[in-house]
Task: inverse folding
């Protein structure tokens, strides 16, 4: 398949020379990607049995390739080999999980020494390193193409209008602009088989830009979809709450990279008038789950891309309603196979969604282990304060809730000028109500929030 372009970086906002490809040549060049996209539209509504069979075939192909071509797996997957040497997935749960520490320390041994020709060339994908050591994997052209098609299925089902522009407010990648001048697709978004003129431009600025600058920049791109992290989305909402601003040209928000809470959704609706379209992805595993586009509130696992398991701390699989660690096997990850790769993301398994899709369901994304409260009995809690309630106690100040011991919570409040007094007693009582346990809760002003 032809490669669909990744998000490109454009710091100065200049337009490239434009498309030199005729509509017919464009349709022909990206025909295989369009066929994959249309097949994905169909597959999400196929039977659970058919989807499972497709996934099992993909898993067997990945395992067979890994045993033959990846040093790390030459004996690690022996339990999956049948008497005749064929792959037998009956003992899948006996395969040890791949840890992040192993991915960091065994990065070279995890890379395939050979790839099927259909996978094309490879590129390096790196994580931010915020979860304990930067991880690096190779991704093939085929893997990028299928991932892009799954992403476009999500956008299609959310009824996004590709004629609008896409304004990305994210951490800047210093390497993203390399080769952009030779690739006019890099400044457009949406399906590459659509005529160039029917797709809006794609621009990116740093998430560290001042909030008023972000709004000014987005207004210059209107009509525009905002692509950012949930924390920045709520920061923009609260900036408009406190200072006003025209947001009529922002038509929707595409979020990822962090947990999108119900509170952030509510604040975005109230102050920005925006609905957020959220997804779960990582640099090493790619896209894993997307919000139900029909308003179900859940996340659909992208089963055509990956085997996603939710495991208890003892390694057993979670049932609907239970919470465990996300464990992922990207099915097209032949360049760096990640077989049963366990992240530190906690999620809750859901029942099948009423929207009619046969894709498995994550009911809730709790977040990474370090972001959850942990108690002496081993349980974890996702704290979900409401912005309106905190505003009532602290005013328009920045704040941070941190667990400093198993029985101690510290609420740090930025010591900024504000006419409204901060009611620390009320804030502590509110946090205690959310936790529902006996905890020592302290509130204090700090010069700077980390």
Result:
């Amino acid at each position: 398949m032809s490669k669909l372009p990744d998000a490109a970086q454009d710091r100065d906002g200049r337009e490239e020379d434009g498309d030199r490809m005729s509509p017919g040549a464009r349709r022909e060049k990206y025909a295989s990607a369009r066929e994959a996209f249309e097949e994905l539209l169909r597959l999400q509504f196929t039977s659970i049995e058919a989807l499972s069979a497709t996934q099992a075939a993909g898993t067997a192909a990945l395992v067979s390739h890994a045993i033959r071509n990846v040093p790390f797996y030459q004996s690690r997957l022996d339990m999956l080999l049948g008497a005749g040497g064929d792959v037998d997935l009956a003992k899948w749960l006996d395969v040890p999980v791949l840890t992040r520490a192993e991915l960091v320390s065994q990065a070279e041994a995890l890379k395939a020494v050979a790839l099927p020709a259909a996978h094309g060339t490879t590129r390096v994908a790196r994580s931010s390193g915020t979860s304990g050591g930067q991880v690096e994997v190779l991704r093939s052209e085929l893997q990028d193409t299928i991932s892009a098609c799954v992403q476009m299925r999500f956008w299609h089902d959310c009824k996004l209008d590709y004629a609008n522009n896409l304004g990305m407010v994210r951490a800047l990648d210093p390497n993203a602009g390399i080769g952009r001048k030779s690739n006019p697709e890099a400044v457009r978004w949406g399906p590459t088989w659509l005529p160039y003129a029917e797709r809006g431009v794609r621009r990116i600025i740093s998430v560290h830009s001042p909030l008023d600058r972000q709004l000014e920049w987005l207004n210059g791109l209107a009509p525009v979809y905002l692509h950012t992290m949930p924390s920045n989305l709520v920061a923009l909402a609260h900036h408009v709450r406190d200072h006003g601003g025209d947001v009529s040209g922002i038509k929707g928000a595409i979020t990822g990279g962090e947990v999108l809470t119900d509170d952030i959704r509510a604040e975005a609706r109230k102050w920005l008038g925006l609905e957020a379209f959220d997804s779960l992805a990582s640099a090493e595993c790619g896209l894993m789950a997307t919000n139900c586009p029909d308003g179900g509130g859940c996340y659909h696992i992208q089963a055509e891309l990956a085997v996603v398991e939710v495991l208890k701390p003892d390694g057993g699989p979670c049932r609907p309603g239970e919470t465990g660690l996300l464990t992922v096997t990207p099915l097209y990850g032949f360049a760096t196979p990640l077989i049963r790769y366990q992240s530190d993301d906690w999620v809750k398994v859901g029942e099948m969604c009423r929207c009619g899709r046969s894709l498995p369901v994550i009911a809730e994304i709790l977040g990474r282990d370090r972001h959850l409260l942990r108690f002496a009995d081993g349980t974890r809690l996702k704290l979900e304060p409401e912005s309106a309630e905190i505003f009532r106690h602290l005013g328009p100040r920045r704040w941070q809730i941190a667990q400093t011991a198993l029985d101690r919570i510290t609420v740090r409040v930025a010591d900024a000028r504000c006419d409204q007094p901060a009611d620390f007693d009320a804030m502590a009582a509110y946090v205690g109500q959310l936790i529902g346990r006996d905890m020592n809760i302290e509130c204090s002003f700090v010069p700077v929030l980390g």
Summary: The first strand starts at residue 122 and ends at 126. Residues 127 and 283 are 5 Å apart (CA to CA). Residues 1-17, 177-181 have pLDDT under 50 and may be disordered.
